[in-house]
Design a protein that fits this description.
single chain, mainly beta, 1 helix
Length: 188
């Protein structure tokens, strides 16, 4: 047997096919893209009709919720709004960047014709998060006494199928038969 110093062999392999897609997040698919943390029994954030909103925490109450990215997103976008007592109750939306320790925060308070609102859009690597907090003061009320995000969308690569190809793999050790003596062809 003679040793072959270098060699390659074709191996049939299923190669994943990816496509970049924008996905609207709802209660039915949120667990595929975000881990959801809510705090409290009666005062928490919950999904309903495409929104992630606080319950009414009552006076001196706080609702918190957190959505942590389970993968890298090319883009995340959402709208946020609050309907509350102006200048006293507050909804805070924070975007946490674990890699850099950076937090971007937007606070909105009060209501005009039912709500005040805004939007956020940006990249979101895996483990970064959207932190939400709705706080009420000790007296007064206004609007529906809650804060929420809606129209949450992520743009990411999604596997859409596979393609079978013959892929060249390097042979680490191979022998060929000499003089009718059979030897291993390769050793992966």
């Amino acid at each position: 047997a003679r040793k072959v110093k270098k060699g390659y062999i074709g191996v049939v392999t299923d190669i994943p096919i990816y496509e970049t897609k924008t996905i609207t997040i709802s209660s039915s698919n949120v667990s595929s893209y975000f881990s959801t943390t809510v705090v409290g029994g009666d005062t928490h954030f919950a999904w309903s009709d495409g929104t992630f909103s606080s319950t009414n925490p009552g006076h001196d109450g706080v609702c918190t919720g957190k959505l942590t990215a389970l993968q890298d997103f090319d883009n995340v976008s959402f709208n946020y709004a609050v309907s509350s007592e102006e200048d006293y109750d507050e909804f805070e939306v924070s975007i946490g960047r674990l890699a850099s320790g950076f937090t971007e925060t937007e606070s909105v308070s009060g209501w005009i014709s039912g709500e005040k609102s805004g939007s956020w859009s940006g990249t979101m690597p895996k483990n970064d998060y959207i932190n939400l907090s709705y706080t009420r003061d000790s007296s007064g009320s206004g609007g529906s006494n809650k804060g929420w995000i809606s129209n949450l969308k992520v743009t990411t690569k999604v596997q859409t199928g596979t393609e079978t190809k013959s892929v060249a793999r390097k042979i680490k050790k191979a022998y060929i038969g000499v003089g009718g003596v059979a030897r291993p062809l390769w050793n992966w």
